[in-house]
Amino acid sequence: MQFFIDNFPLLRDAFLTTLSMSLLAGLLALVLGTVLAAFRVSPITPLRGLSTFYVETFRNTPLTVVFFFIIFGLPQIDFAVGFFTGSVLAVGLYTAAFVCEAVRSGINAVNPGQAEASRAIGLTFGQSLREVVLPQAFRTVVPPLGNVWIAMVKNTSIAAGFAVSELTASLQRLSNANAGELLLVLLAVVIGYMLITLTSAYGISRMERRVAILR
Amino acid sequence: MTTPVLFDLPGPKARKRIRIGTVIGALIVLAIIAFVLVRLAGNDQLDPQRWAVLFDPNSGVPQALGEALVRTLQVALVGMVFATVLGLFLAVGRLSDHRAVRIAATTLIEFFRAIPLLVVIFSLYFVLPSFGIRLSAYAALTGGLILYNMAVLAEIFRAGILSVAAGQREAAFGLGLRKSQVMTLVLLPQAVRRMLPVLIAQLVVLLKDSSLGFIIGYFELLRQARSLVEFFVPRFGNQYTFQLYVAAGLIYIIVNVLLSQLAKLAERRTSSDRRMTGTKGVGLPDETVPLDAATPGPDRTP
Question: Which of A63, B26, B117, B165 could form a disulfide with B148 if both were Cys (CB 3.0 to 4.6 A apart)?
């Protein structure tokens, strides 16, 4: 127990790093993913192609490789980023592809009559997307978006391999302790992740019930 | 192509605007690419000699990357087979009639779904040794992939089994089949077929995750590239670093794209005959049309 108390500041900082990395990357992924989904259904063919290309590329690239290109590749074009910023960028850009797919499935789930009606009353593409389709789409994609968020929180653990001292890295750093104490660290790390994922899961299911559209 | 619902087909003016926008956009993209190339060339990264090393058998690079690809696929393949089999058992266990089995399977699934894969791998690699069990990087990576993905696959299988129409199960019991026969002969074949695209998508994820071997020092593609770099740096400096990493990344992407194409193929094949599999339809609007058409219309009344 003494060991745990001694290392509490380290674990707390690690937890806060994981949390802030998740929130920043999540925000980036949500904004970029929504824009990409709008591109995907837009009337302009090149934008559709661009979005499809982005999604296909990032969905088929291991996150470790994305990390690699951002942290070791960007300096080659004289854009060095720090390890933390690089990790947020990597996780955010990667997750945006999955957010795009989720939002697009939501857009497809909106009754076509809604889109037809908004066009009939003279709304432009942008207006009908913003005012009519997306608000309904987001309501239906709360569960899949929640899954993407939880997977993303777990994916931030890869930053441990790239010199960010988040939760998983603290497990690695304290791993030469003896068995009983190490189990405590493992327990703390697992609890740290569950604190984020389980509360998110609870929040998502509440939100899902609140915003669900009864059809 | 069907008429889009969200917008009118662009007229002559809009088409002109789109053309202008496309040209400007293409110019911007080209400018970015040119900028990247100029910066790379400025750092001498585009020298053909630097790239030639990737294809020169005398340097040992192609062989090393080839072996690394084999090791990557080996981990992924072993992981896929065991995770699928264990996932099937867990899914059936979670749907079992026996409470103890159900609780055990549920706990196992939920536990491994809640923690990151890398934590599982680290536990096997760093925590087990302090209990006297020392695993190689290969065993830790494969074990982690199996434990994590069996939980995910179990949920996929369970969703598939539950999506088979209840009538199928009832009919099978009505024929006098046993519980195990109902599961293996009636429910699972339909569930697996239904879930094939999702299943393959998850296997792509598993293949992608094998790159985590990099972090614990298993010589998959990325780590192999890293070790080649470490081998080259004392002799040639950082001359080949970027090229080797790009090569390793590209091989990963190509293999994954191929597997994803397989998933798409499977999806097209399963979705084309979904109505014959006796599973619950998604309730597409056009599926209700035949119902209306089947009711006798006014022209058929004498």
Answer: B117
Cα gap B13→B127, rounded to integer Å: 66
The residue in chain A having the minimum alpha-carbon distance to the alpha carbon of residue B244 is: A73
The residue of chain B with its CA nearest to that of A178 is B130
| A209 Cα to chain B: minimum distance (Å) | 21
**Domain architecture of chain A: domains with CATH:** 2-211 (1.10.3720.10)
Q: Compare all CA atoms of chain A with the CA of B116 and give the residue at the minimum distance.
A: A154
d(C-alpha B256, C-alpha A62), whole Å: 9
ipTM: 0.80
What global pTM score does this model have? 0.80
Tell me the per-residue pLDDT of B139-191, one tens digit each, with 9 for 90 and over. 999 999 999 999 999 988 988 888 888 899 999 999 999 988 998 899 988 88
Q: Where are the beta strands (DSSP E) in A53-139?
A: none
Count the alpha carbons within 13 Å of A205 in the hemisphere toward its beta carbon: 5
Gyration radius of chain B's alpha carbons: 27
CATH code given to domain B57-271: 1.10.3720.10
Task: Tell whether A62 is within 8 A of chain B (Cβ).
Answer: yes
**Closest Cα in chain A, distance from residue B24 (Å):** 11
Q: What is the pLDDT of residues A85-107, one digit of tens each?
A: 999 999 999 999 999 988 988 88
- Chain A hits for B6, CB-CB cut-off 8 Å, are 41, 43, 115, 119, 125, 128-129, 133
